[in-house]
Structures are given as C-alpha cells and as structure tokens.
Amino acid sequence: MAKSVDEFNKKRLRSSNITVVISIALVLFLLGLMGLILINAQKYSDYIKEQLVVNAYFDENYDAKDSVKIAKLEEETFKKVQTLAPVKRATYISREMAAKEAKASMGIDSDALFEENIFPSSIEIALKPEYVDPAKIDAAIKTIKSVPGIVDVKNNSTLMVDVYNNLNRILKWILGFSILFLVLAVVLINNSIRLKIFSKRFIIKTMQLVGAKRRFILKPFIVEAIVLGAIGSFIGLLALFGVWYYFTSQIGSAFVQENQQYFWLVVLILGVGIFITVLSTIVATWRFLKSNVDDLYYS
C-alpha cells in the first residue's frame, strides 16, 4: 500500500514538474519571439533610414583648362565628407556619371537634347540612422555644407521626417508588445510555481513543525526552481531558434544580425526564466512558512 502511494506521489511530482517546465518554455518562447522581432525591426528601420540620401553638389562653373585641378579638389573634398560624423556612406558621382543617370531616367540614348556634361559633380550621402532624426538632420546638412568645395546640399527633408516618424512609431508599438509579453511571462510563470508549491504546503509545514529551519526548507525548493527554470528556458530557446530558422529559410532571407545581440537575447531569456522561477518559489514557500496550520486548509 505504501509503495503504491509513493509511486502515485512520484508520478504526481513528475507531472507537476513537466507542467511547470512546459509553461515556462511556452511563455519564454513568446517572449523571445518578440525580442527577435524587435531586434530585426530595429535593424530594418536603420537600413531604411540609410536609404534616405542627401546630395552635395560641387561648383559646376569652371574653366576646362582647370579640370585637373578641380578633379583633385573634388577628390579631397570627397575624402573629407567621408570622415564626417553624420556620414554613413558616401558615393562620388562625376559629371559623366550624372549625365548617364539623367539619360537613363529620361529614356534618352543620344546627346541631341543636352550636352554631355551639363550636370555638376556631386556626392550622394547616406546619413547614419541617428542623424535622420528631425532634430539632428539640419545640423548634419550644415556640417556637410561647411566642407570647402561643396556649394549646395539638397535633400527631401519632408520625406525623411515622415519615414523617421513612421518607423519610430512602429518600433514603439513593438517595444510596447515586448514589455507586455514580459509582464505576462512574470504572471504566468509565477502562477505555475505557486500552484506547484501549493501542492506541497503540508510537506513544508510538517518540516517546519519538526524543527527544520526556514533556510533548510527553502534550499531544495530553490535548487529545484533553478533546474526547472533552466530546462524551461533551454526548451523555449530551442523552439524559438528552430521556428525562426524555418521562417527565415522559407522566405529566403537570412536575417543576419550581430552575434552579440543574439547572445544578449539568450542571456535575457535564461535570466528571466531562472530569476522569475526562483523568486516565485521563494515568495510562495515563504508564505506557507509564515502561515498557521489552520490556514493551510483555506489558502
């Protein structure tokens, strides 16, 4: 009889542990998924911002005999522009290249409508994402204009501001959902642990009544919480990166990011899983340690 009771208790304990691990894994999987979406949304936001370029123009009026000297000055100016703090990427466009682009955009193959070199040399500049900010873009343009040799800088500031605001609005929504999922993770994992500890409330009180100290009683529960949190986090991470790999392979995009970001995401998931599990275990166990025997029947 005693053996059957022990086997029943062991099965119930295993079932309880499996339920807790699955709950932790599912919650952390959703939390990690929001983290991956946030990371990639930030990267694609920066990528789109870098496609918003400004054009810095050289003086188009000079004597043909000074062409060698002008070419050297333009080269020096181009190098200076590349070193500016707001500049992410710069591309030099000569008069010949500008003429070819103009012909291609207008669908013209001959020189009948205009001379070959009527367009000035210029530099196409992609600003760093943080300088697309409406509060910084004017200062960035002034910095580019201050470079000797640049006579004019043109950009579609209205488009830049609209794109910047829309992208930031999307990122804020994603961040908000990520925080919501973090709160849900705390609540759901805490509830799973409380139910598990609740089922052991009589064991906890019995140990306390026979003279066991609170630290002694807490220790095995904390160790078990660390193990369950780590296992649940590991399963959640395996599911997360498995689903993410399948998703990226299906759409044909690698979603290549910095390894450091993935590393910190893994650390965050592991940390959240273990920390919440341990904290919930301590709080729930301490509650029964402080309660009276009669309270156990009404908790």
From TrEMBL:
Stored Gene3D superfamilies: 3.30.70.3040
| Identification of the protein by name | Cell division protein FtsX
Identify its membrane topology class: Multi-pass membrane protein
Q: Does the keyword Transmembrane helix apply?
A: yes
Q: List, for all copies, the residue spans of the domain called FtsX extracellular.
A: 54-153
Q: Quote the subcellular location field of this record.
A: Cell inner membrane; Cell membrane
| Membrane-spanning ranges | 20-39, 170-193, 221-247, 262-289
Q: Where is the ABC3 transporter permease C-terminal domain?
A: 177-292
What role does it play?
Required for cell division and gliding motility.
- Would you tell me the Gene Ontology cellular component terms? plasma membrane
Organism whose genome encodes this protein? Chryseobacterium soli
Keyword set, alphabetical order = Cell cycle, Cell division, Cell inner membrane, Cell membrane, Membrane, Transmembrane, Transmembrane helix
Can you tell me which family this protein belongs to?
Answer: Belongs to the ABC-4 integral membrane protein family. FtsX subfamily.
